[in-house]
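Intended use. Records like the one below are meant for learning the mapping from a protein sequence to its folded structure. Do not use them to infer anything beyond what is encoded.
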Amino acid sequence: MQDRRGRTLCITNTTHACDRDLNALDGDTSFEETCYNGTVEEVQAYMSETADALVLTDSKGRIVDVNTPWEYLCGYTSQNVKGKTSSILHGPLTGNGVSRDLHSFIVNGFAVRRSITNYKQSGMKFTNNVTILPLRRVQHNGPAFVAKLCEVV
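Structure written out for the chain above:
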């Protein structure tokens, strides 16, 4: 799908889109503001209200929580993925250094955006424009990162 300027879009839901260059098209910064400055409770409340596919992980990358749009996009239920890592979405074309590359940024407190090949539970490949943000107001051993997945279509 393309916008009026011919940019390839990825759709997270019916109202938000990001282009192949990982730029927000609608200027909505609520995701970044909530996750950078919010408490874990505020992030979880945002996750339940948004139509964006979000996953909350601990400092070791284990999944703490996912929202309904994430379940819909990836094909897994929340119960199936809690305690696992994002490697459940990896497959033959994901790339060997993807996890190390992303981890090196986020453990040092940096936000990171990447376009990677992931796989749904069904085995279907999809291009994922993912944004990962560290939670700045996190308690020791609590959730540490939140990621927003956006499928390029």
